[in-house]
Amino acid sequence: MSSEVRPDAAVDAGPGRDGAEDKPSARRSAPVPSCHSAAANTGAGAGAPVVALIGTPNSGKSTLFNALTGARITVGNWPGTTVEVSRGVWSSRTLLDLPGAYSLDPLSPDEELTRDLLLSDPDDRPDLVIVVSDAANLARSLYLASQVREHRQRVIVALTMIDVAHRRGIELDTYALSAAIGCPVVALDPRRREGLAALETAVATSLGEDAPRPRSHDCCADDLARADERFTWVAAAVEAGSLNPGDDRVSFSDRIDKVATAPVLGPLLFLGVMWLVFQVTTTVAAPIQDFFDTLFSGPVTDGALAGFAALGLTGSWIEGLVVSGLIAGVGMLLTFVPLMALMFILLALLEDSGYLARAAVVTDRLMRVIGLPGKAFLPLVVGFGCNVPAISATRILGDGRQRLLTALLVPFTSCTARLTVFVLVSTVFFGPWAGTVVFAMYVASILLIVGTGVLLRRTLWRAMGSEPLVIDLPPYQLPTLRLTAAVTWTRLQGFLRTASGIIVATVCAVWLLQSIPAHGGGFGEVEVEDSVYGVAAQAITPVFQPAGFAQWQTTSALVVGFVAKEAVISSWAQTYALDEPEGDDPGSLGERIMADFTQSSGGHPIPAALAFMVFLLAYTPCVATLAAQVREIGWRWTGFGIALQLAIAWGLAVVVFQVGSLWW
Question: Domains of the chain (ranges plus CATH)?
Answer without folding.
Answer: 7-245 (3.40.50.300)
